[in-house]
Design a protein that fits this description.
The chain is globular and about 75 Å long. The chain contains 18 helices and six strands. The chain has a four-stranded antiparallel β-sheet with strand order 1-2-3-4. A two-stranded parallel sheet has the order 5-6. One of its GO terms (cellular component) is membrane. This is Fatty acid desaturase 2.
């Protein structure tokens, strides 16, 4: 280990791919080589190179004490006593108050999951699948029954998305290995996707939400321009991959309908084969084997393919609106090195609580609380929400809550606004 007395400015200089330091609880770590072996993926930990990653470290690890043993060999010193605990430009009082809130959350047991809640939730997903198949066995096939079964299957798929999302973030069981098996079962066997693909993608989103080049969810592959900054940059450079001033219209044609059936499917298969992730591939194939064994007797091969395609089409609409209404209308920009709370609040908003909204969104209507405390089980979001709101009011941080209708409308409005900004910059700058 090097001697202590590191400065914040020195740490910030070590933020390149081949030279990465970060700070956790005032201790300085050289993660250059470890980043390649980081279980959460190289990109997630590298996003915090050169920064104080204390709050991010606490947010992502359900058992920080267990993880610290891996940090010991990486320790190269500590911040000098005269150095502040937070990075330059960050509000020290806000950082301290948020860390105090997190300590309170842990003491109150709000990070502990209730096994009964998730067991019942899994049960209602399995019940939907069983009812869809049972209707066909009892009543036979007809247009109306096929449509009803499709809706039930799409509902079970959407709800399974929210459940695997829970298992990916938190440890429902004390033995985390069981938790990983459950996630692979839900996302693999019940949905036909890949747990590792989702984890590596989604954790990046949580690490730096709505930050270009760091959050994969805002990588629109030149199909859309998002936020207030990117459209102007594209316009000034005279980039026109698409007629962006019409993106709020063509979004309905290529966004909700195609995200899961086309883009995600291609990306999932490509990722599993490139990484040789044969375990996830086996889980995924078990879904399709089960699906075709169940529905081939009723619809045949091509009919079963049409059924699963239609189910994915319905699920994709559901997934897109739920995930985008909390993020797409919010701020999007390049890296600004904000403190954890400010960064998450600028990129997220909540949707009003109701029994339907909770179920429809898998409790992701509490997106603010979920982003601040990713390992918190969803049944505790409503308990911590008043405390988060009070902290935001104290420090003047906007805490946005919308109706479900406004959240959906704002997705379209934000796309139109960004398209107009692009057109103005394209024509006049």
């Amino acid at each position: 280990c090097a001697s202590g007395g590191q400065t914040g400015q020195k740490v910030q200089r070590h933020s390149h791919r081949g030279d990465q330091w970060l700070v956790i609880d005032r201790k300085v770590y050289n993660i250059t080589q470890w980043a390649k072996r980081h279980p959460g993926g190289i990109r997630v930990i590298s996003h915090f190179a050169g920064e104080d990653a204390t709050d991010a470290f606490s947010a992502f690890h359900p058992d920080p004490n267990f993880v610290r043993k891996f940090l010991k060999p990486l320790l190269i010193g500590e911040l000098a006593p005269t150095e502040p605990s937070q990075d330059q430009g960050k509000n020290a009082a806000l950082v301290q108050d948020f860390q105090a809130l997190r300590d309170h959350v842990e003491r109150e047991g709000l990070l502990r999951a209730r096994l009964l809640f998730f067991s019942l939730y899994l049960g209602h997903i399995l019940l939907l699948e069983a009812l869809a198949l049972g209707l066909l066995w009892v009543w036979g096939t007809s247009w109306s029954l096929t449509l009803l079964c499709s809706l039930m299957l799409a509902t079970s798929q959407a709800q399974a998305s929210w459940l695997q999302h829970d298992f990916g973030h938190l440890s429902v069981f004390k033995k985390s290995s069981w938790n990983h098996v459950l996630q692979k079962f839900v996302i693999g066997h019940l949905k036909g996707a890949s747990a590792n693909w989702w984890n590596h993608r989604h954790f990046q989103h949580h690490a730096k939400p709505n930050v270009f080049s760091k959050d994969p969810d805002v990588n629109s592959l030149h199909v859309f321009v998002l936020g207030d900054t990117q459209p102007v940059e594209y316009g000034i450079k005279k980039l026109k991959y698409m007629p962006y001033h019409h993106q709020h219209q063509y979004f309905f044609l290529i966004g909700p309908p195609l995200l899961i059936p086309v883009y995600f499917h291609i990306q999932i298969l490509r990722t599993m084969f490139l990484r040789q992730d044969w375990v996830d591939l086996a889980w995924s194939m078990s879904f399709y084997l089960r699906f075709f064994c169940c529905y081939y007797p009723f619809f045949g091969l091509f009919g079963s393919v049409a059924l699963i395609t239609f189910v994915r089409f319905l699920e994709s609409h559901w997934f897109v609106w739920v995930t985008q209404m909390n993020h797409l209308p919010m701020e999007m920009d390049h890296e600004r090195h904000q403190d954890w709370l400010t960064m998450q609040l600028s990129a997220t908003c909540n949707i009003e609580q109701s029994t339907f909204n909770d179920w429809f969104s898998g409790h992701l209507n509490f997106q603010i609380e979920h982003h601040l405390f990713p390992t918190m089980p969803r049944h505790n979001y409503h308990l911590v929400a008043p405390l988060v709101r009070a902290l935001c009011e104290k420090h003047g941080v906007p805490y946005q809550v919308k109706t479900l209708k406004k959240g959906i409308i704002d997705v379209v409005r934000s796309l139109k606004k960004s398209g107009d900004l692009w057109l103005d910059a394209y024509l006049h700058k």
